[in-house]
Specification:
With 147 residues, this protein is mostly helical. Helix 1 packs across helix 5. The chain is elongated, with a radius of gyration of 22 Å.
Length: 147
């Protein structure tokens, strides 16, 4: 009698472990699917499918609002952190005109470009609340436009 109770507990524990693994795999797949939907939305200029950004216009900047750089930032930004999104925003507002710096950045991009497939793993490992979007994030002003 005690042996059957122990067997039941072991089987139940195994079933719980398998169930948790299936749930985690399902959650990872949903995150991956959402990431791919976002990338497709960027390719199609489907503004409703692009996550909003937590950015506001820099007061007094000479061309940020004229060129609508916030919408361009929303389209280009695929960073998984607020720091990465902020760096892209800074680079867009204050472009570097030094050829050596530009070439160094291009070399870095060439180095990490083959690792683009890693972005899905980072998206799965990094909870959505820690990435660049959020409930108060800004939607593009020209959300109705498409090419």
């Amino acid at each position: 009698m005690a042996g059957s109770g122990l067997a039941f507990i072991l089987l139940f524990g195994g079933a719980v472990a398998v169930h948790r693994r299936v749930q985690q795999t399902s959650a990872n797949f949903a995150t991956w699917r959402d990431l791919l939907k976002t990338h497709l939305a960027r390719m199609r200029l489907d503004w409703a499918g692009i996550p909003p950004q937590n950015l506001t216009a820099t007061p007094g900047h000479p061309f940020e609002t004229d060129l609508d750089l916030l919408d361009l930032h929303c389209l280009l930004n695929t960073a998984f952190s607020h720091g990465g999104a902020a760096r892209l925003h800074h680079w867009m507002l204050d472009p570097v005109l030094d050829l050596a710096v530009i070439q160094a950045r291009q070399a870095l991009v060439r180095e990490v470009r083959p690792l683009a497939c890693v972005s899905g793993s980072v998206a799965i490992a990094c909870p959505a609340g820690q990435r660049g979007g959020g409930p108060t994030a800004r939607r593009p002003r020209f959300a109705g436009l498409a090419c």
